[in-house]
Amino acid sequence: MSRVGTVTQYSPYEIFGTFGGVPFWPGSLTLLPASPGAGKTSLLLKMIFEAASANIPAAIACYEHTEEELKFRLRGQAKAMVGGAHGSVGDEATELHLAKCSAAILMATSYREHTIRSIEDELLMTYKLPEKGYALVAIDYLNVIPVVGLTGLVPVEYKSGEAAAALRDMGKKHGWAIIAAAAMKSDAFIKDDPGLDDLFGDERVPYEADRVIFMRKEGIPRECGCVYLTAIVKKDRNGPERTWQMDFWGERFYPATEAEISCHDAPKM
Hints:
By secondary structure, the chain is α/β, with parallel strands linked by helices. It has a single domain, classed as P-loop containing nucleotide triphosphate hydrolases (Rossmann fold, 3-Layer(aba) Sandwich), CATH 3.40.50.300. It is 28% helix and 23% strand. The chain has helices at 40-53, 67-83, 91-99, 116-125, 156-174, 204-208, and strands spanning 17-19, 22-24, 29-33, 58-62, 105-108, 136-140, 148-149, 152-153, 177-182, 211-218, 227-236, 243-249, 254-256. The strands form three sheets. Strands 5-4-6-9-3-10-11-12-13 form a nine-stranded mixed beta sheet. It has a two-stranded antiparallel ribbon with strand order 1-2. A hairpin with a 6-residue loop joins strand 11 (227-236) and strand 12. The longest helix has 19 residues, at 156-174. The radius of gyration is 18 Å and the shape is globular. The mean pLDDT is 91.
């Protein structure tokens, strides 16, 4: 049994890093719901890129793309960091930026094989993520993770809640911050103000999450192909609800934060 007086010097909500414009604390579960094509995977990759560049253990387990596709997107993001949305970038400059995130772990996962437990085991045993310590783990995406119950695979209408609970347990057990892309109900795609009840799955999905950040496109892509995004925090156990803007540079799979939007037409160096 702990005494109140023994825990006053420690904050379990202390931020260990801000990646992709989002602060993370140990043991947290963040959900990132959006409509298809809104840039969820790209934002997760940017977060992993920045965490690995800051020497924080970082991994993405992706059910949607191969490792080669993830590497291609990261290469595009490295180009965006040098030349903005469309500027010319040489191979040497690209490689120098990619080297900063060389420790990032890219896992192409399978709908049939990779449960949360198997992902956890692989991260610990193969990739040597800390048993207890800071790490950022991205999952793409929550609603397709296979969940096995006593009678076999859990039905789709219930497995998202089970998966969210298991991810939260994994984060708290190891002190990792977990962020998972999540699906929304189709009738919520065009809403200006989505709510927690628009998340696909049962009521445990928003309940288990420590934070929920909705992403939506603003209007249609501009002539150059880039499109503005809005991020909306609808739940946060460690801070207030807030809204901020991003610019998705689709040619380079890069979600530029507010501070980077002005670099659209100019190199960031």
